[in-house]
Design brief:
mainly beta; globular
């Protein structure tokens, strides 16, 4: 599956779901409750909705912080209070001929201070590149801190511990 790259958008229960596929890596995010959250991950190449018995989704009201990014504006986190504005997908080519897909998810902080573009690059390898763009729309200076462009949760797969021979990472 080298060089395979694909972006798939759909809705589940009225929530936007963003599915990023590159190589066999599949990563999904869901916008719910004012934030963009981890929706699932697998290395089988299939979207989470096709792997119903083996995938998990962290519930939107879980105590686990599954937010995929974090940004502090004027000392307050804006990643939990955003409005979803939309997304776009572009197929681009670098000067060296490398083709990639660039997906931007557009959010706005509910306090009106910044627009946040969550940018994801898929190039066909098993690695997802992520960065965020911030646009100050407040009309005043703002202080930016604690920028985490790619966070969230990692799935835990029940029953796989039987295949782990040794929990020591040195062996």
């Amino acid at each position: 599956m080298k060089d395979y790259k694909n972006f798939y958008y759909h809705e589940e229960s009225g929530m936007p779901v963003f599915c990023y596929r590159t190589g066999l890596t599949v990563y999904e995010e869901i916008f719910s409750c004012g934030r963009l959250m981890s929706g699932g991950f697998n290395a089988a190449g299939y979207t989470q909705n096709l792997l119903g018995s083996s995938s998990i989704r962290v519930p939107a009201h879980s105590s686990v912080d599954s937010s995929v990014f974090s940004v502090d504006i004027d000392g307050a986190s804006v990643g939990f209070d955003t409005e979803y504005l939309g997304y776009d997908e572009k197929r681009l080519t670098e000067e060296n001929g490398t083709e990639y897909i660039l997906i931007k998810v557009y959010l706005r902080a509910l306090d009106g201070s910044v627009n946040i573009n969550v940018c994801t690059r898929l190039d066909g390898t098993g690695v997802i590149l992520r960065y965020i763009e911030l646009e100050n729309v407040s009309g005043r200076s703002v202080s930016v801190g604690n920028i985490v462009p790619f966070g969230g949760v990692i799935d835990s797969i029940v029953g796989w511990d039987q295949y782990v021979k040794n929990n020591d990472p040195k062996k």
